[in-house]
Amino acid sequence: MRNSLSALFLFFIFLVIYYSGSFTKIPFADCVGFVLDAEKGKFMTTATATTHFLYINTVILIKNITGLNGIEASRLLVVFSGAATVSVIYLTAKSITKTEWASLTAAFVFGFSFSFWRNAEIVEVYTYNTLWVSLFFFSIIKSFIENKKQYIVLAGLFLGISLWVHIQNILLIPAFLLFLFYFKDDKKYSYPSLLVFGLLFASLFILNISQGLPFKSPYSSDQGNWVEESFQKTFLQYVKDFLQSFAYLIYNFNIFTFFGVMGALFLYKSNRKMFFVFLAGSLCVYGFSTFYAVSDNYVFFLPFNIIFALSVGYGLSHPKYAALKKMSWVCLLIPLGYFLSYKTVFQTETGKALHNFKKYKGGLDYYMLPWMNDNVGILEFTIDKKEAPEPIKWMTLSAVEYIKLMKSKGYTEEEIKKL
């Protein structure tokens, strides 16, 4: 009962935080494309690497049920799934740590982590995706810690569903197969788990092939060759990518990075099987995300960040850190840390140069502060025919189409600028 109340408390706390800081105008990146698909209201019938079948269809379903427009239906799904994910992180951490304060701290650390917080406040697929992935990890830990065998089947179900949200989750298949290997003697549960996952995975290919798409369509896209380009970098570029990934880790977990590392070491000593399952998932996701040749690769670390947040909770729960319980409130200062980092970087010449270069979409505010209220909008940028110092045509093409759609619904340009 206490666990449920704490989870509910966290849900409402972060619901308020994410909704209060949510975008004022449709941001840059893929946001306007998602809103455009939602506003059209035509259900997605293919599941490619960029259509995000389950996400966009869930938004359209919400739009049809509530009567909200595409923007607000998207906001509702993103904010609710973001807050729900934080609650799942708490429940998962509590299952493995059996410690209330460490579990709550881990949940707050993850909820305030930059990458997740940012994506909970824009129109993107990633918070909805992390909800399903967090349920997958929840099921794994329940299976190991509490020996509740029904969660073995649920692990296959949740991972299979997650593939319909984002195909990146195929990187978790090695972890899932290792998990099933450890429960191979529980055939009554491991076989159905593999079957459920296999059917959901195979259905992606069946759906696309039935509509004339090639076999590889669920994990490929005609919008870019990002995977191929990831293997064409120089050695120095790979080194830079690795250092950047470490910077992401520190910015997301700050001083709690130490406890995440210690948590992994403690888990290795106490439960090797579970350690290796999460290690398999971590290596695949972290490695791919580090070297993937896209500009905003930080979002692809989110499944790894879930694992790391759970490790933070496990590290804090160790008896040697029991005295830190009185200092656990420090996690509430994480937002202040972002603000101070932003102010510090803004004082440097490099920071000022980056701010001016990226000013067209918000500058350092966009890159260092997770909250998005009073942000720069892509629609206003497009209507005013502003120019960016870097290629963003792939964004403005969707913006132009969305503007035309809204004009056909009677909106004026001035009204559209405010969206």
Automatic annotation (TrEMBL):
Membrane topology per record: Multi-pass membrane protein
GO BP, sorted A to Z: lipopolysaccharide biosynthetic process
Annotated InterPro entries: LipidA_mod_glycosyltrf_83, TMEM260-like
Primary residence: membrane
Subcellular location(s) of the protein: Cell membrane
Pfam families, per the entry: TMEM260-like (PF11028)
Gene Ontology CC: plasma membrane
GO molecular-function terms, A-Z: pentosyltransferase activity
Superkingdom assignment: Bacteria
Key words, A-Z: Cell membrane, Glycosyltransferase, Membrane, Transferase, Transmembrane, Transmembrane helix
Residues spanning the membrane: 43-62, 74-93, 99-117, 126-145, 151-182, 194-213, 246-268, 275-294, 300-317
Keyword Transmembrane helix: yes
Protein's name in the database: DUF2723 domain-containing protein
